[in-house]
Structures are given as structure tokens and as C-alpha cells.
Design goal:
This protein is an alpha/beta fold and 345 residues long. It contains ten helices and 14 strands. The protein folds into two domains: 169 residues, Rossmann fold, CATH 3.40.50; 98 residues, Rossmann fold. The strands form two sheets. A nine-stranded mixed β-sheet has the order 3-4-2-5-1-6-7-8-14, with helices on both faces. Helix 4 packs across helix 9. Transfers the gamma-phosphate of ATP to the 4'-position of a tetraacyldisaccharide 1-phosphate intermediate (termed DS-1-P) to form tetraacyldisaccharide 1,4'-bis-phosphate (lipid IVA). It comes from Pseudochryseolinea flava. Belongs to the LpxK family.
Length: 345
């Protein structure tokens, strides 16, 4: 019933985005194409589709032959404008995902944030002694002021874009036909037992909107890592799960398979943790003294904040890294990217 009531607003939103896209398609609105290859990773829907693990996959693949810069808007940060990550930054100044990227790859990759990507890219190039040879744009499919060399859109297996509606009736930022602008479409967070039949069916649905290569990935969970300076080197069988991500269900299911899930402290995406959250965790540990606290790598970058020092080092806290893993044809995907960016001479 609510969707029916919101449908007229969705039609209006669709009209606005259609006019905007038409203006860019016809050159009525200016867009910039850069000399160095720009790879865009985005999605049609709001919410988490696994963009950060995909960016990390691209970094690992391209790093041996390229100097890489990543650029995102920096959602949730308390700063504005262009900012090149440095040791003085944290999740508040960069945003949780860019800061996570900096912690993991900062010695290998230039990490930057900026709302206006067309403005930010030249600044990234000028700020480096050795300019990057590839720029990876995070969540920029609708940021049409930059013309990418290659565009990837991600869509969640449980919520594929072709079964969704435009905002506010659904979760789409633009109509499903926008998928035609992509060079590759990746269906993420697939179950490990995904059948060939299901893949064929989903690929057929995607091709109703975009005749582009379709790939399927699943989440690969890494080894649990203790917080730096925290107590405990190995995680206990009893776990208190803490998440502040768009869709915690896959991780919750994995934790239930590997551990005894005692409690799940679930917060909204990009949640800013505070002292009361640590007090809640301390209370839960008093109730379950043999439990360990497990969280996502994305949440870790906020929970390890200096403002919580003395709290996070006194608790048995661990985080679970994830990677994206192609179910099949991953080599074909990598070859498409390498062909698009070329080799750094």
C-alpha cells in the first residue's frame, strides 16, 4: 500500500533523472574525460552492494603494473571538499570506507575524497610526485561529470536492480535502463551453492535492460584479526556481533555457522559509535564473560578511534575482513579491466 502511495513521487524522480541523463548523453551538460584511465564502481540502488571489496579486488589486480589512486565522496565525514588521505586522518575526516582503504593500502595507493570528482582528479594528479596511472572511482555511477574509461555496476543477489523500483517507491537511484551505461554488471553476495540454472536466469533478466557481460561473486571471509592493542589473541567460540552496515544478514549467517552467536548489536549503515555503545558492550560482556566481540572491518575503523582508546583496548575485540570472490569467469573480468586500462609503460 505504501509503495502505491509513493509511486507518483517515483514517477517524478524518474522523470528528473531521465532528463539529467539525457542532458549528459546529448552533451548538453559538460563532462570531463581524462587522459589517464578512470574505472568507475557503482550501483543503481542505494545501500551496500560490496563496492569496497570490489575496489580492493581492483587494487590487488592492478597494483603490480600501475600506480593507483582511489577517489570517493567520503560519505559521513565531517570535512568538505577535496582531501588527500594522510597519517593525520581518521574515519571522521575521510569517512569510514576511505579510511579503511587508507589503513589497508595507504603505503601502496593514493586515497582521496571529494564530492566533485571532476575537480578532485586533477588535484590527485598534481599532488603526487609520480602521478597515478589509474583512478578508481567509488560509488560514482551517477556522477556523470566524469566520463570513465570503464564502468562496473554491482547489484545484490537478494535485491537485483531488475526487481526494484525507483526512489522513493523502491531503492533505485535511477531506472533500471541506466544499466546500459555500464561495461560490466556484477551480481554480488551470491550464495556459495549458486546453481548454473539460477545464473542463466539472472543473466537473462539483466540482459532485458543491458546487453553487457554479467559476472557473479560471493563473499570470501578472511581470518579473524584482533584489534591492535586489544586483549586476547584468539577469538572465543561465543561471539557478540557488532555491525553498522547496510545489510548485516550475510555476515550474521556466516558467524552463526562458525561460532555461537550470543548477541547481535545492529546499528545503521555508517553509524558513528559513541561511549554509550562501549558501555553496552561492557554490559554484554559482564552478562557473557566468555564471549568475544566480533565486528566488520568497516566498523573496526570507527571502533578503533583514538577517542575510544582505553575502551577498545580493554575489550576482547576482533574484526572479520572480507574479499570479493568470483564464482566463475573471474579471469575474463580481470582481462576486461586490464584491456581497458592498458599497461603502465
Amino acid at each position: 500500500m505504501l509503495r502505491v502511495l509513493l509511486f507518483p513521487f517515483a514517477l517524478l524522480f524518474d522523470l528528473i533523472t531521465r532528463i539529467r541523463n539525457y542532458a549528459y548523453d546529448r552533451g548538453l551538460k559538460p563532462a570531463v574525460r581524462f587522459d589517464i584511465p578512470v574505472i568507475c564502481v557503482g550501483n543503481l540502488a542505494v545501500g551496500g552492494t560490496g563496492k569496497t571489496p570490489m575496489i580492493e579486488h581492483l587494487i590487488r589486480m592492478l597494483r603490480p603494473q600501475h600506480r593507483i589512486a582511489t577517489l570517493s565522496r567520503g560519505y559521513g565525514r565531517n570535512t568538505k571538499g577535496f582531501r588527500l588521505a594522510s597519517s593525520a586522518d581518521n574515519a571522521s575526516t575521510l569517512g569510514d570506507e576511505p579510511f579503511q582503504m587508507y589503513l589497508k593500502f595507504g603505503d601502496q595507493v593514493s586515497v582521496a575524497v571529494g564530492e566533485d570528482r571532476a575537480f578532485a582528479i586533477p588535484h590527485i594528479i598534481q599532488a603526487q610526485e609520480e602521478a597515478p596511472t589509474v583512478v578508481l572511482l567509488d560509488d560514482a555511477f551517477q556522477h556523470r561529470r566524469v566520463v570513465p574509461k570503464f564502468s562496473i555496476i554491482l547489484t545484490d543477489f537478494t535485491k537485483p536492480f531488475y526487481n526494484d523500483y525507483v526512489l522513493p517507491a523502491g531503492r533505485l537511484r535511477e531506472a533500471a535502463r541506466g544499466a546500459r551505461r555500464a561495461d560490466a554488471i556484477v551480481i554480488t553476495k551470491c550464495p556459495s551453492d549458486l546453481t548454473e540454472e539460477t545464473m542463466i536466469e539472472m543473466e537473462h533478466e539483466v540482459r532485458r535492460y543491458a546487453d553487457k557481460p554479467v559476472f557473479f561473486t560471493k563473499i570470501h571471509y578472511g581470518e579473524v584479526v584482533p584489534f591492535a592493542g586489544g586483549i586476547g589473541k584468539s577469538i572465543n567460540p561465543d561471539v557478540i556481533l557488532v555491525t553498522g552496515i547496510a545489510n548485516a544478514q550475510p555476515m550474521k549467517q556466516y558467524v552463526q555457522q562458525q561460532y555461537r552467536l550470543i548477541e547481535h548489536v545492529e546499528r545503521p549503515d555508517h553509524y558513528d559509535y559513541n561511549t554509550k555503545d562501549f558501555e553496552e558492550l561492557e554490559s554484554l560482556l559482564k552478562k557473557h564473560p566468555k564471549a568475544s566481540i566480533l565486528t566488520t572491518e568497516k566498523d573496526m575503523v570507527k571502533l578503533r578511534s583514538a577517542s575510544f582508546s582505553g575502551k577498545n583496548t580493554q575489550l576482547p575485540m576482533f574484526y572479520l575482513p572480507i574479499e570479493t570472490e568470483f564464482i566463475k569467469n573471474g579471469e575474463d573480468f580481470d582481462a576486461m579491466i586490464m584491456n581497458a586500462v592498458g599497461r603502465d609503460e
